[in-house]
Amino acid sequence: MLKLIKGFWRWFRTPSRIAIGTLISLAFLAGILFWGGFNTALEYTNTEEFCSSCHMNDVVPEYRHSVHYMNRSGVKATCADCHLPHEFIPKWTRKIKAAREVYAHVMGKVDTKEKFEAARLEMAEREWVRMKANDSQECRNCHNFEAMDFTQQKTVADKMHNLAIQEGKTCIDCHKGIAHQLPDMSHIPSGFKKEE
């Protein structure tokens, strides 16, 4: 038995073509299995089920009463559609930054409705800045000025969308609170409120 074990280790450490080929094949298979498992876990974090596991008592109920959840055409935007870029590098960058938000929940910073409401303004402002910086790209994946038929919009929407194009505004400039309640900003003096 000892001879068999020694023979196996000698074969395993000997750089023969079979050993190197086996090692490369095993490394390749392990890489595929790791990437598949990692990607599956990462995709799970894009689901409404994952988001609801922390946000069931705060933003999920208000989202479920929004036009992005239920509407006449049946087109539904999920959490990831609005909070996660579709492009590879921006998506990964956002995932890394989102880990901070998961950490805050796990560590108890926003794990109750009361704590969440206390931090809502700070979190909303951070999200508004992010969306302004990327020209509301997540919105534009579904809503695009070039594809809008302004003649089919209400007069005020037609006017405001044309004005937004002329002034170079982006979706989040006018549509804060479209899927979530706006944070309480009554304690901020009007001269100090951030531009909306």
UniProtKB/TrEMBL annotation:
Pfam families, sorted: Cytochrom_NNT
Organism: [Haemophilus] felis
Top-level division of the source organism's lineage: Bacteria
GO cellular component: plasma membrane
Gene Ontology MF terms in the entry: electron transfer activity; heme binding; metal ion binding
Residues annotated as binding a menaquinol: C82
GO biological process, one term: denitrification pathway
Keywords: Cell membrane, Electron transport, Heme, Iron, Membrane, Metal-binding, Transmembrane, Transmembrane helix, Transport
UniProt-recorded name of the protein: Cytochrome c-type protein
Post-translational modification: Binds 4 heme groups per subunit.
Binding site for heme 3: C142, H143
Topology within the bilayer: Single-pass membrane protein
